[in-house]
Amino acid sequence: MSEYKLPRGIAISGTGLWTPPEAIGNEELVDSYNTWAERYNREHAGEIEAGELAAKPLSSAEFIEKASGIKSRYVLSREGILDPDRMRPYIPERADDELSVQAEMGLKAAKLALEKANKRPEEIDTVIVGASYLQRAYPAIAIEIQHALGIDGFAFDMEVACSSATFSMQRAVDAVAAGSAGAVLVVNPELASPQVDYTDRDSHFIFGDVAVASVIERRETCRADSAWEILGTRAKTVFSSNIRSNFGYTARAADVDPFGAGKLFRQNGRKVFKEVCPMAAAHIEEHVRATGVEPGGVRRYWLHQANLNMNNLIIRKLMGDDASEERAPVVLDRYANTASAGSVIAFNLHSDDLQPGDRGVICSFGAGYSIGSLVVEKFHP
Question: Catalytic amino acids?
Fold first, then answer.
């Protein structure tokens, strides 16, 4: 792979985090799932006994926390998720002349990022929305947010599963470096709960909803109290079906249920753990060294927030005995897996205490497989 040297002087000048007001703890999520599973097993007792169907296993809060480190998750709507007769959120459809749900989420995070960056909407040239799931094909959610903010420029959506945030931030860096934009607003509205199969014991607890946003611009135009110069960006993709979502419009042409078996999120967790951990650790180590420091010289790692066991293994590979939660902050215990937004949530919540000159790494990894990272250094404009 050829090495690209990023021009110096491009910075993250502000980030925003919007958290839904409703949350669901493990215990209540387990109660609804177990009620559903026990009913399913009773109703299909004959087929289960005959070996024609597999019984649904029961879940527990202890199982969830041990498997993932997740204790709770924020969701856009609790209604329906905890109803054994429904087992999916209820999010009413909106009219075409109303702000879409995903745009509304993103807009709230975007305003917070602009405020932190001390930036006005008219100073933004480009809006990029990156998310694991998009509410519709077109018009782009990014263009809707652009319109709502009154930004004169261009906007587009992109999707790279759980690396959508870091990949979209890298596209923003590329635009600023190329001169096609002076300042870019990156928005990551992760509305993951509608894609969760709440009747699957192994995945019903994984995802939560959230929105994050970032402002990326040239260092000399920063007016924030503090900002982060981007020293390097790196992306990598390798095809794998171990994390997959087959929901799509072609189900209509195939005469199959678009929400049927295999159409929602699913993964082979053991293979993902075995294959992604060494890939992510090697990716980060090589990227950090390419920017002139050793992994031990990085003050903080804001890692993808999917699984605590994965993060612990990756940070130990990078830091050895110096691995700690202070070095790699955890937010998935209360946010759960928020798809691409997790590393940016960690960055937003756990970066203010660092000093000018401190370096950090924002890194996400997931379906694809895909891995994206940015090496950053704090400064005062």
Answer: 162
- CA 59: distance to chain centroid? 25
Cα(366)–Cα(162) distance, integer angstroms: 5
Partners of residue 301 on adjacent β-strands: 361
Which tens digit of pLDDT belongs to each residue from 161-215? 999 999 999 999 999 999 999 999 999 999 999 999 999 999 999 999 999 999 9
Which range is most confident: 88-92, 240-244, 252-256?
Answer: 88-92
Preceding amide of 369 cis, omega within 30: yes
Residues 37, 201 contacting (CB under 8 angstroms) = yes
Of 338, 308, 348, nearest to 325 by C-alpha is 308
Digit-coded pLDDT (tens) for 11-51: 999 999 999 999 999 999 999 999 999 999 999 999 999 99
C-beta of residue 197 within 8 angstroms of C-beta of residue 246: no
**Does residue 56 contact residue 204 with C-beta atoms inside 8 Å?**
no
Q: What does the block give as tokens for 281?
A: 């650790």
pLDDT digits (tens, 9 = 90+) for 73-87: 999 999 899 999 999
Tell me whether residue 163 is exposed, middle or buried, using C-beta atoms within 10 angstroms of its C-beta: 0 to 12, 13 to 18, 19 or more.
Answer: buried
Strand partners, 190: 210
Distance CA 268, CA 245 (A): 12
Beta strands at 210-218 and 10-18: parallel, antiparallel or unpaired: antiparallel
